[in-house]
């Protein structure tokens, strides 16, 4: 009787487990091997020891530049989180029309990244784009955005923050609604003003959500590829070439799969380290009930 | 006297409330404008005649509505064709993937078997493995079995279910009371029948949420098609749209018309099912 139930259960979970083996475990293991080979995708991989890794760390200055660019692009995360928290806080003030406002902020989340990126490419157009036109109205001469080495990454960050607000706002709003009212009432009796209540009660109470958003955003932003592919193609002069973009170039343009795999592992380990660091640091600032 | 003090205090509190709400409205309206104006700009550009696009200052409402941009983009520029391809590509992974995920979620939530937790944890690690790490070896494997430039790499993996969906549905199944299930067991229903006749009908909201997420992910996927599809006749909608950049360089009217069309299905879906999206996100987000 019991054994029969086991069989049913194993049958039920067989598809995702098989999927895990075929599309996660085996590729992952194979990728370790490929990262130690020279492999063009046409001929069999040739083992060459740690060459790819030493090239990555010591001989390829572009890799370090892409590393810098990746961290630079992550600057949008704290900005976006602060804005999302601000909007969620505003929405939490017994506002009428929450549904209406939420829709506006959420629209980019469900929209096609390709369409949104094309749209912003047009908005960032230095001569005829909307942004420089609006800046012109208030007397600011806008930069050349995507064709400027120093402004291309800020443009990517602006677009990323704009596109990511909705999901973080929804998460923060749910967290805010979960903060016990009694805490606010107690603080009010103790004479705490609005700002003090926000800093001393709201922020600690929603800190698990903050950690969740931080960790997932870092993992997402550091692997972001489509926006860069469409908006800047890594340029101008490599100023928006992130690790992932460089990895794609190596894998699918230069057909250097071995080197690209080494790069993927470097990025994977980096993400793991950053995530662990996040959890370790979180002991100091995240409060669970 | 006491009443008067209470009255003043209440009055003060109410004034505070009004000030707070006014500030909140101000920021929300400002924020909504920042969100909405790019979309309006997209719509406005899509309805302009080619030459008018570079007019400065820009005209928000075009003098002549160039609806022809849309018909051109739909047919000549293959948006419709791309849309059909996308539907063909995502139908199977959406439907079958949802089913296999739900089946596994049911087993993890409601059944006992050796190594259950270990297997579940193993599945969850897939959610933590960065996609870029598995991308290249997966490509190599699909290439070696001749699946490059076919839809197979976009269709097949999704049919095995997704770890995130298993996780989400498992959470949901665990909240369903077990009385019905017990009764069904006594009646001699086998686990598969219990799943199909009892669990599935009770889980419609959760299934809809996951189905929507699956649809959205498939519909908006750009990376997969970019890597695997080469022939233009196999392009999915997102690839067709991305290829506009090369084909209609600086012809922003066409590019924006295509973008508007690409947004319509998901935006419509969102308007009808906003609740499911929001609940789905907060559930996976908060309990994750």
Automatic annotation (TrEMBL), chain A:
Domain ABC transmembrane type-1 residues, every copy: 62-278
Pfam families reported in the protein's UniProt record: BPD_transp_1
Chain segments annotated as transmembrane: 7-30, 71-91, 103-124, 160-179, 199-221, 262-281
UniProtKB keywords: Cell membrane, Membrane, Transmembrane, Transmembrane helix, Transport
Membrane topology: Multi-pass membrane protein
Superkingdom field: Bacteria
Subcellular location: Cell membrane
Similarity comment: Belongs to the binding-protein-dependent transport system permease family.
Protein name: Sugar ABC transporter permease
The organism of origin for this protein: Cohnella silvisoli
Automatic annotation (TrEMBL), chain B:
Signal peptide start-end: none
Pfam families the record matches: BPD_transp_1
Record's keyword annotation contains Membrane: yes
PROSITE patterns named among the record's database cross-references: ABC_TM1
SUPFAM superfamilies: MetI-like
Keyword tRNA processing listed: no
Transmembrane spans: 22-43, 87-108, 120-142, 154-173, 252-273
Protein localization: Cell membrane
Domain ABC transmembrane type-1: 83-273
Lipid bilayer topology: Multi-pass membrane protein
Alphabetically ordered keywords of this record: Cell membrane, Membrane, Transmembrane, Transmembrane helix, Transport
Similarity comment: family membership: Belongs to the binding-protein-dependent transport system permease family.
Protein name listed in UniProt: Carbohydrate ABC transporter permease
The organism of origin for this protein: Cohnella silvisoli
């Amino acid at each position: 009787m019991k054994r029969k139930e086991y069989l049913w259960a194993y049958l039920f979970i067989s598809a995702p487990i098989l999927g895990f083996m075929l599309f996660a475990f085996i590729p992952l293991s194979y990728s370790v091997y490929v990262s130690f080979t020279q492999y063009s995708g046409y001929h069999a991989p040739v083992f060459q020891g740690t060459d790819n890794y030493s090239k990555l760390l010591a001989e390829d200055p572009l890799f370090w530049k892409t590393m810098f660019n990746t961290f630079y692009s992550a600057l949008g995360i704290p900005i976006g989180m602060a804005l999302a928290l601000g909007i969620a806080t505003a929405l939490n003030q017994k506002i009428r029309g929450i549904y209406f406002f939420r829709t506006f902020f959420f629209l980019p989340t469900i929209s096609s990244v390709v369409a949104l990126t094309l749209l912003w490419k047009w908005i960032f157009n230095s001569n005829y784009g909307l942004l420089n036109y609006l800046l012109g109205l208030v007397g600011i001469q806008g930069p050349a955005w995507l064709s400027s080495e120093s402004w291309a990454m800020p443009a990517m960050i602006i677009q990323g923050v704009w596109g990511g607000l909705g999901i973080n706002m929804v998460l923060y709003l749910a967290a805010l609604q979960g903060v016990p009212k009694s805490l606010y009432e107690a603080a009010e009796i103790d004479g705490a003003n609005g700002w003090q209540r926000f800093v001393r009660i709201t922020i600690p109470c929603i800190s698990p959500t903050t950690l969740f958003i931080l960790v997932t955003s870092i993992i997402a932003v550091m692997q972001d590829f489509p926006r860069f592919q469409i908006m800047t193609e890594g340029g101008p002069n490599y100023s928006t070439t992130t690790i992932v973009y460089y990895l794609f170039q190596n894998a699918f343009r230069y057909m250097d799969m071995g080197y690209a795999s080494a790069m993927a592992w470097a990025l994977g380990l980096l993400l793991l380290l950053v995530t662990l660091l996040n959890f370790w640091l979180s002991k100091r600032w995240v409060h669970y009930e | 006297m006491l009443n008067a003090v209470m009255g003043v205090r209440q009055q003060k509190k109410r004034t505070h409330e009004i000030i707070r709400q006014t500030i909140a409205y101000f920021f929300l309206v400002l924020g909504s404008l920042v969100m909405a104006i790019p979309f309006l700009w997209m719509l406005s550009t899509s309805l302009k005649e080619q030459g008018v696009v570079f007019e400065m200052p820009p005209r928000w409402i075009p003098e002549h509505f160039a609806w022809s941009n849309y018909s051109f983009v739909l047919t000549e520029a293959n948006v419709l064709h791309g849309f059909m391809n996308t539907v063909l590509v995502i139908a199977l992974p959406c439907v079958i993937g949802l089913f296999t995920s739900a089946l596994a979620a049911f087993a993890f939530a409601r059944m006992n078997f050796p190594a259950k937790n270990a297997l579940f944890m193993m599945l969850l690690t897939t959610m933590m493995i960065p996609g870029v790490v598995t991308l290249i070896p997966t490509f190599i494997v699909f290439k070696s079995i001749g699946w490059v430039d076919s839809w197979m790499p976009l269709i097949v993996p999704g049919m095995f279910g997704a770890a995130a969906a298993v996780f989400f549905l498992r959470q949901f199944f665990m909240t369903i009371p077990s009385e019905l299930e017990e009764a069904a067991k006594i009646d001699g229903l086998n686990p598969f029948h219990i799943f199909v006749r009892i669990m599935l009908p009770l889980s419609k909201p959760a299934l809809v949420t996951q189905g929507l997420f699956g649809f959205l992910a498939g519909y908006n996927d750009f990376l997969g098609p970019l890597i695997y599809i080469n022939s233009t006749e196999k392009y999915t909608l997102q690839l067709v749209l991305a290829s506009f950049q090369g084909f209609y360089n600086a012809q922003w009217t066409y590019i924006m018309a295509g973008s508007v069309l690409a947004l319509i299905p998901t935006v419509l879906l969102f308007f009808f099912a906003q609740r499911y999206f929001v609940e789905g996100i907060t559930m996976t987000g908060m309990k994750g």
